[in-house]
Amino acid sequence: MTLFYPQTLRNSRGYAESPLGKSFKSRLKTQPPNVTDLGFSKGFTLLELMLVMFIVILGFSAIGLNISSGNDATKLQSAARDMVSALRFAKGQALISHEETTVALNLNENTYTVSDRDKVFTIPDTIALTVVTAQEELEGKGLANIRFFPDGSSSGGRIKLEMNSATWQIDINWLTGQVELETK
Q: Taking every annotated instance into account, which residue ranges of this chain make up the domain General secretion pathway GspH (predicted)?
């Protein structure tokens, strides 16, 4: 059984044709305009790819520099906080035991100890250590003490930890023995 649709006509080649005169085959063959005809290329040039790669590498190197410089700053801050903890511990020990407690600093070896403790704390060699304290607390070249008394007072002083352009300063109040940390 053959169906006949009156609105579809056949041309001389046997293709179905719409009443508007365009054949289905010719409509199927119609392609979008060629991109190269409009002046656009179908891909990227080597120069464009190299430029993008250069920008990406530049971005990653900037991130890498920030991460590595942050690492040094973290080491300095960590060393300063560790020293503040040791000083506050020494103050607490003096108050509890009713005896003097001393934090001995060795500037030559970048180390410090709390009296009556075997542990020697080491500061990285890349950190410069400076101490300002009472004359009586200096024990020779590169050796200094910060002393805490049972009444809460101390010999007082200032300890500076420096690395590159960053500085952390620890202030020990002689009257109250309070230990404060600040960045400079």
A: 79-175
pTM: 0.63
Domain count, the chain: 2
CB of 114 within 8 A of CB of 146? no
Give phi and psi for 92, each to the nearest 5: -65, -40
- Residue 118 is predicted with a pLDDT of 87
Spatial distance between the Cα atoms of 105 and 137, rounded to a whole number of angstroms? 10
Domain span at 9? 1-30
Asked if residue 61 is part of any domain, the answer here is no
Q: Which residues contact 18 (CB under 8 A, 6 or more apart)?
A: 7, 8, 9, 24
Do 85 and 23 have their domain in common?
Answer: no
Q: Are residues 85 and 163 in the same domain?
A: yes
Contact 151, 97 (CB under 8 A): no
- Tokens 């920030």 sit on residue: 66
**What gap in Å lies between CA 27 and CA 35, rounded to an integer?**
19
pLDDT value, residue 4: 53
Q: pLDDT tens, 63-111?
A: 876 666 567 788 999 999 999 999 999 999 999 999 999 999 999 999 9
pLDDT single digits (tens) 170-184 = 999 999 999 999 998
The number of C-alpha atoms within 13 Å of 41 and in the hemisphere containing its C-beta is: 5
Q: Are 21 and 76 found together in one domain?
A: no
